[in-house]
Amino acid sequence: MAFKVGLLGFGTVGTGTAAILRDRDRRNPLLQDIEIGRVGVKSLDKPRAIALDPDLLTTDLESIVTDPDIDIVVELIGGLEPARSLILKAIAAGKHVVTANKAVIARYGDELYAAANKAGVYILLEASVGGGIPIIKPLKESLGANRISQITGIVNGTTNYILTQMTEEGADFDAVLTEAQQLGYAEADPTADVDGLDAADKIAILASLAFGGRIDREAIYCEGIRQVSAEDISYAEKLGFTIKLLAIAQKTENRDNTLQVRVHPTLLPNAHPLASINGVYNAVLVEGEPIGQVMFFGPGAGEGPTASAVVSDILAIAGILKSAGKNTALNPLLSCSHQDYSAIAPMEEVVTRFYARFLCGDRPGVIGHLGTCFGKHEVSLESVVQIGFQDKLAEIVVVTHDVQEKNFRQALEEVRSFSALDSISIASVLRVF
Amino acid sequence: MAFKVGLLGFGTVGTGTAAILRDRDRRNPLLQDIEIGRVGVKSLDKPRAIALDPDLLTTDLESIVTDPDIDIVVELIGGLEPARSLILKAIAAGKHVVTANKAVIARYGDELYAAANKAGVYILLEASVGGGIPIIKPLKESLGANRISQITGIVNGTTNYILTQMTEEGADFDAVLTEAQQLGYAEADPTADVDGLDAADKIAILASLAFGGRIDREAIYCEGIRQVSAEDISYAEKLGFTIKLLAIAQKTENRDNTLQVRVHPTLLPNAHPLASINGVYNAVLVEGEPIGQVMFFGPGAGEGPTASAVVSDILAIAGILKSAGKNTALNPLLSCSHQDYSAIAPMEEVVTRFYARFLCGDRPGVIGHLGTCFGKHEVSLESVVQIGFQDKLAEIVVVTHDVQEKNFRQALEEVRSFSALDSISIASVLRVF
Ligand SMILES: NC(=O)c1ccc[n+]([C@@H]2O[C@H](COP(=O)([O-])OP(=O)(O)OC[C@H]3O[C@@H](n4cnc5c(N)ncnc54)[C@H](OP(=O)(O)O)[C@@H]3O)[C@@H](O)[C@H]2O)c1
Ligand SMILES: NC(=O)c1ccc[n+]([C@@H]2O[C@H](COP(=O)([O-])OP(=O)(O)OC[C@H]3O[C@@H](n4cnc5c(N)ncnc54)[C@H](OP(=O)(O)O)[C@@H]3O)[C@@H](O)[C@H]2O)c1
């Protein structure tokens, strides 16, 4: 039995996917049953890294998703449209769908899952989070017996590369970004990566699968790494922390069914399993009961790794079709379903530790005033360190105990109003894990 | 549709499994369809951590594996017999099988897989390696499109705990072993763990799945941690290494289809992803093409984590039965099949780096002699460090470049014969990653 795959897109991931599918000499015999039926692209003239029978190529992507010969549609064009419409049309035509598109799943996951379930087809998305790292399938299947309490991920390779370089070289954000762009680790327009939007898409997907509810993408708090400075990285190091852009989804303990979902740079204790994930690597830490902690680590992007994930989804569908035939019910472990929206706690209610750096004029009583502002809003301090002098201003770093974001913000307001006297300025504020 | 599970064994893992199955309030609706039909134990009088309907309990395990009401037999008694015979009888009676038993799979995997494939049932074994860590399913399914080149694991929690404690406390093996036994991290008879036998079972299973061939368990080189000394750990640290008990399976590059499969304490560079896996945690690093490196990290044992893996296998079978019914062909991604035995390279042919520590009388020319012995057998040295003095003897540590094990052994023989002059003794020899 042979299964025909229709590829939408033949760029980085599409090419990698075709490279695996056309290499017959692999350990998995099931790969022999999979054929590339059609390939949809934007331009027919573009030179391609893999020579394809020109008859396979088309710019008419609609004709692929409705082609009766195609069993599985693999969406690798990216972006919201026409990806979303093409996926919906493929589903309506009874095709199984594989996609690497985090943007479309994070925003239209519910719509797509509902359509797929109604049509009795699978929509699989292993490559949409963590590139080659097996995370979606392990989360849905291998950890399926667990109550998940928290997912913490380094899910954006560009920002992890930048932060790692800043840490190793003591360099500033802008310099490292330029270098990353030259090396191809960052896009010309780096916004989606450095402002945390890509990470927010991914944690939305993970949270919806782990907690079984729809996630309002717009409700995710999202802070990027542009304001992380070389100084803060170095002070964090002195205090035993590494700064990482974390994507976090966790159950709030005191409020039933409320989730915290957020992306921000975070000071991680060096002993934390995610603290040693460097460069373009990604990792996702899943915590639950009774499993405890498990972590999945690997390449978060790239042609080969991402294609490995795409092909594993194609194989999963082919394996089912081959063993059970085409007219069986969906396996509840592989299909995605969502009930209601998960309530997402407002950021002010999040409880976390904070790191803040202040520049203080050398007036007597300044540290005392800082302490008073914090005390007034029930922010208790774990450590206060005077790190050094900068332009004759004393640099003071505080790390708080766990505190409600709201209280901490109020305390900072208090400090700010005091600094109208021009003796304290807030140089940076970061969260601590 | 409800599926009935027959549990063989109700000890640590059996109790944990029942705890999950009887807790109806979990996120996975499929769990609602699974019922505990029978439970087989050795003693009916033993107090049990979970109260079971006494009618469920029996000491007649054969009656469970042939019970027409049972769909899935879960073998959690451990050991070779009666586990092997019971699994074979369950398969013959058309039951799907889930097992956590690495010993029986490492030795009789081929026989059990062949019987299962013939009978058209699954035999799943996620819990047999890495406790709660999803590794078997990701290896078979998520990484199914890859050519695996190497698997490197810390797959025994007891030895990893002991080595971690020795590293952190500078303590000797015997002292830490006693402590580990008191804490329940090591068994009264620690042989299977500390001599590397348990790790060898696990790497046999991983290698057979990753490379698709049968592994002769007896051909696995196996060296435990008894001879690792506090001194070597501390010298390794000074050189930038952490000592871990690694289980390694890798394709030999120059010899087609030959595998190296071995378990031994190893000096790992501190930057290696496995170097920071501490305590009872396990981790498995998989390398392949096109994925690159992926690592799976988590709790390698324990009631809850291991039960999480067992139940994920039960769910996998229930999901298939529920969606596809009972009379479908086996899904090739989930079933295990083996062709021929993999040829395992003899240890003498393995190429690796070595660490060796020598105690030398303070005679002129001793270091020169060491160098001569190594040079004669084409062992080139990466570093030679005189670390200190012990009982008036100079302590010299060498780290070699990559060298064939055979050549290194011959060089050591040469050193040994020279040491008949009583001026050099070999204090320890370890491999370096
Ligand atoms: N690259 C990675 O490392 C990576 C990792 C994880 C996930 N992903 C995801 O994988 C997807 C694909 O990424 P990529 O890096 O492979 O993208 P890419 O290199 O930019 O390739 C996009 C492909 O889609 C085609 N295409 C785009 N818009 C089209 C349209 N409107 N009509 C027809 N064809 C269209 C392009 O055609 P032409 O070739 O004719 O221009 C190109 O072949 C994205 O969702 C991305 O987020 C990528
Ligand atoms: N414990 C872990 O963390 C862990 C982790 C990974 C894998 N595993 C594997 O899981 C399996 C079970 O381990 P465990 O720790 O749960 O063992 P355990 O606590 O010793 O429990 C063994 C159970 O099997 C029953 N049993 C043993 N031999 C029997 C026989 N001949 N007839 C009937 N019943 C028999 C015992 O009955 P009684 O209760 O009446 O004595 C007991 O309920 C083993 O293969 C082990 O390697 C364990």
Structure explained in plain terms:
The structure is a homodimer of 433-residue chains. Chain A has 433 residues and is α/β, with parallel strands linked by helices. Chain A has three domains: 3-131 and 303-336, NAD(P)-binding Rossmann-like Domain (Rossmann fold), CATH 3.40.50.720; 136-299, Dihydrodipicolinate Reductase, domain 2; 347-432, Alpha-Beta Plaits (2-Layer Sandwich), CATH 3.30.70.260. Chain A contains 13 helices and 18 strands. In chain A, the strands form two sheets. In chain A, strands 7, 8, 9, 10, 11, 12, 13, 14, 15, 16, 17 and 18 form a twelve-stranded mixed β-sheet that branches. A six-stranded parallel β-sheet of chain A has the order 3-2-1-4-5-6, sandwiched between helices. In chain A, a hairpin with a 2-residue loop joins strand 11 and strand 12. In chain A, helix 6 (157-169) crosses helix 7. The radius of gyration of chain A is 24 Å and the shape is elongated. The mean pLDDT of chain A is 93. At the A-B interface, helix 1, helix 5, strand 12 and helix 11 of A face helix 1, helix 5, strand 12 and helix 11 of B. Strand 12 of chain A pairs antiparallel with strand 12 of chain B, so a sheet runs across the interface. The structure holds NADP nicotinamide-adenine-dinucleotide phosphate (2 copies). One NADP nicotinamide-adenine-dinucleotide phosphate binds next to helix 1 of chain A. Residues 9-14, 40-43, 46, 61, 76-78, 82, 100-102, 127, 131, 301-302, 306 of chain B line the site of one NADP nicotinamide-adenine-dinucleotide phosphate (NAP).
